[in-house]
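User: Predict the complex with 3,4-dihydroxyphenylalanine.
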Amino acid sequence: MLSQLKQTILKKIEKAKDLKSLEDIYRRFLGRKGELTGVLRSLKDLPEKERREKGRLANQIKQEIEEKLKIGRGKFQVPSSKFQEEWIDITAPGLQPTVSHLHPITQIRQKVEEIFQSMGFSVVEGPEIETEYYNFDALNIPKEHPARDLWDTFWLKRDVIATPYLIRGKQSSRKQLTTGLPRGFASRNDGKKLLLRAHTSPVQIRYMETHQPPLRIIAPGRCFRHEATDASHDVQFYQVEGLMVGKDISVANFRGILQEFFKRFFGPEIKMRLRPSYFPFVEPGFEVDILKNQKSKIKNQKEGEWLELMGAGMVHPNVFKAVGYNPRDWQGFAFGMGLDRLAMLKYKIEDIRLFYSGDLRFLKQF
Ligand code: DAH
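Assistant: Here is the predicted structure with 3,4-dihydroxyphenylalanine placed in the model:
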């Protein structure tokens, strides 16, 4: 009777056409109220010997049927689950991997560094948090001097720790000159008052204090001003400072180096001019303009228009005195150029605030 039941079940399994019929078979024979389950349950009422024999047989049959059911299920399940797992829509558009890149200001900074490094300049960095001494006094801008108004900046509370002073070599390998508090941070003059540097010119002082001429450096970095923001002003921006000192460095050397820089940056047709101007740390002082012409890469500038790009001049004797150089022995030029300005010209950007907005729609264009 048991083996008959077994045959019936196996036949049904064989004929089953889908998962559902297999489940029906399971429920009908092996479920809680299933026929085979009933047989197994009734074993307990049989005498011991018969119970053991019948029990073994029934369990064997149960196992065999479960095995066959499993195989049967596999037949129907495997293809469908595999299909679901490996399903791809070959008509769907591909996912483009996100490729990141450097910020436009960084790209411009690297280009500027590359050009000046090829002309023998080292790249140096100074702290963004400065003392009043380095930002003003050492640059020949004494306390009550009206020129201080040109660099209105943010003053800090005393307990802010200044960033280290860095110098970078040819391959941009960073070497730290001093760590912790910058030189003169705690003791120098009225170095007690801290501020966010209003320009990169303090790096001139820091470098000359620790190095002897002749020297050539550029110092790129972030600066801050306390001003109302508009399309061409922001409370933060980037500058690159330049300084070259030697026995007989002249305005002619300055012109030559700058001309070369502009040629390499904007293209060979670029024209520049120097205009007299005033900065307390230079004498004479200039402003440097460039002229647009067809072949230059300057885009948002009208034909024949001069555009102011930087302040510059011959280092003032008082600046040399402040760093312990004898102004009779040394002379040189310095300049400070807006990196944002360069980037805006090169990429035809009309609003400086876009650089700091973090807006990917803007950044992705470079
Ligand atoms: N530090 C000046 C500014 O931010 C720019 C400048 C002018 C830098 C003349 C110089 C210089 O080195 O010689 O307005």
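Residues 199, 201, 241, 279, 281-282, 311-313, 334-336 surround 3,4-dihydroxyphenylalanine (CB under 6 Å).
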